[in-house]
């Protein structure tokens, strides 16, 4: 290994471990620890590990440019793993472990039910322990209530919530006049229930001619064989399926439908990663839709460079899961710390409120405004459709599958912005 490569790897290792970086961070600088509380084992471990890689890369990139600029010198970031096993009680125990260690930034997202429990627990903790307060950065838990009636000063959401995502998907469905029959299916917990209910309402408003031919909720993370559900979809005569499923619950559902050879379209939140493209294969071309704040084929030199950098860092195709919002969450909290000149949770929260983010550290590929009223990031969204890699608009495939996603429509923040019922309670400065 040459000296340059060794030096780079050493710096990345130091960054990942939260060690001081010679020449950048101050000598003996105390790392700023971020706690990832996520299911890193159990049925959704693949989703948890995928998030870990994104956030690790985000912290490495901050550290590689010198860390967080604060009075007294730069400080590196240190991402610490806390395995919730996908269980709410375990997540709450891990939160206590993180706050007991005086970690002031908590990250979680792969379950709206767990996110809601963390918000409630953190509200109580911060009131009870003002000297050990912490922030909650939510990168994926998209139940709308979390920034509406359950909003919290300590919680910031960097993903578009479910109604914003559904609004984008149903706008695309609205123009597909060939779709007349739709099947709704989701995981049986707060988020999945909301998606099914709201999809029905939005389709009724935008396409009253569409017939909802099935509505199904299934146990989360416990179904190993989705063939019975696929048979119900076939029997219904559905031409399209709308689902908020994620992780293996989405992969196995799509695979079961593919195995029956059903010519249905899938309108999904997360159909562009974690095994889904490989599972459905050729049958997904032109029929699997996904919605996200960005995707690898969004286009442009900066976007392409961003993808290539990530793949250099994680070259194994099975690790190919990249989302701009997770990078932005880290970049925005770093910017807030630097603006506040502090890592104290209350000061950082106030700096985050209303923050405009131009995505400069990401080459400008993702931008947004953290709305002060409810701490919901207002950002563009893309609806994309699965296609063969190499086709126009599909420079990159997904997970080495030979299939990628091309843009169908880009929505500006104002097109999807929604009112909030949040009545934010802010602590005294």
UniProtKB/TrEMBL annotation:
<dbReference type="InterPro" id="IPR051010">
    <property type="entry name" value="BCAA_transport"/>
</dbReference>
<comment type="similarity">
    <text>Belongs to the leucine-binding protein family.</text>
</comment>
<feature type="signal peptide">
    <location>
        <begin position="1"/>
        <end position="27"/>
    </location>
</feature>
<dbReference type="Pfam" id="PF13458">
    <property type="entry name" value="Peripla_BP_6"/>
</dbReference>
<keyword id="KW-0732">Signal</keyword>
<dbReference type="InterPro" id="IPR028082">
    <property type="entry name" value="Peripla_BP_I"/>
</dbReference>
<dbReference type="InterPro" id="IPR028081">
    <property type="entry name" value="Leu-bd"/>
</dbReference>
<dbReference type="InterPro" id="IPR006311">
    <property type="entry name" value="TAT_signal"/>
</dbReference>
<protein>
    <submittedName>
        <fullName>Branched-chain amino acid ABC transporter substrate-binding protein</fullName>
    </submittedName>
</protein>
<feature type="domain" description="Leucine-binding protein">
    <location>
        <begin position="31"/>
        <end position="390"/>
    </location>
</feature>
């Amino acid at each position: 290994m040459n000296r340059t490569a060794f030096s780079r790897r050493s710096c990345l290792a130091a960054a990942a471990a939260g060690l001081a970086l010679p020449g950048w961070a101050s000598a003996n600088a105390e790392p700023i620890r971020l706690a990832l509380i996520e299911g890193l084992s159990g049925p959704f471990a693949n989703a948890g590990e995928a998030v870990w890689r994104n956030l690790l890369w985000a912290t490495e990139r901050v550290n590689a440019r010198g860390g967080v600029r604060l009075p007294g010198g730069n400080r590196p970031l240190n991402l610490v793993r806390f395995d919730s096993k996908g269980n709410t009680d375990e997540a709450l125990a891990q939160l206590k472990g993180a706050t007991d260690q005086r970690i002031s930034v908590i990250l979680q997202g792969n379950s709206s039910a767990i996110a809601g429990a963390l918000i409630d627990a953190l509200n109580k903790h911060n009131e009870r322990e003002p000297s050990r307060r912490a922030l909650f950065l939510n990168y994926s838990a998209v139940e709308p209530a979390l920034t509406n009636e359950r909003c919290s000063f300590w919680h910031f959401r960097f993903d578009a919530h479910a109604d914003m995502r559904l609004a984008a998907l149903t706008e695309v469905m609205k123009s597909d006049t060939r779709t007349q029959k739709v099947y709704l299916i989701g995981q049986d917990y707060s988020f999945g229930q909301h998606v099914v209910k709201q999809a029905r309402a939005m389709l009724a408003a935008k396409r009253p001619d569409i017939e909802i031919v099935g509505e199904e909720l299934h146990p989360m993370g416990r179904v190993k064989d989705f063939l019975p559900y696929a048979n119900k979809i076939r029997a219904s005569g559905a031409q399209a399926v709308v689902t908020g499923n994620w992780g293996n619950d989405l992969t196995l559902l799509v695979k079961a439908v593919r195995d029956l050879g059903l010519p249905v379209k899938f309108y999904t939140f997360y159909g562009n990663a974690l095994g889904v493209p490989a599972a459905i294969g050729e049958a997904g071309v032109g029929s699997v839709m996904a919605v996200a704040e960005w995707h690898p084929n969004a286009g442009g030199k900066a976007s392409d460079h961003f993808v290539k950098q990530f793949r250099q860092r994680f070259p194994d195709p099975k690790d190919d899961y990249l989302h701009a919002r997770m990078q932005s969450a880290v970049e925005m909290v770093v910017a807030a710390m630097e603006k506040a000149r502090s890592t104290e949770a209350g000061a950082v929260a106030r700096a985050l409120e209303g923050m405009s983010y131009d995505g400069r550290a990401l080459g400008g590929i993702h931008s947004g405004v953290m709305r002060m009223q409810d701490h919901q990031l207002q950002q563009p969204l893309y609806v994309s459709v699965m296609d063969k890699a190499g086709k126009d608009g599909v420079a990159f495939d997904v997970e080495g599958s030979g299939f990628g996603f091309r843009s169908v429509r880009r929505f500006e923040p104002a097109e999807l912005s929604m009112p909030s019922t949040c009545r934010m309670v802010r602590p005294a400065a």
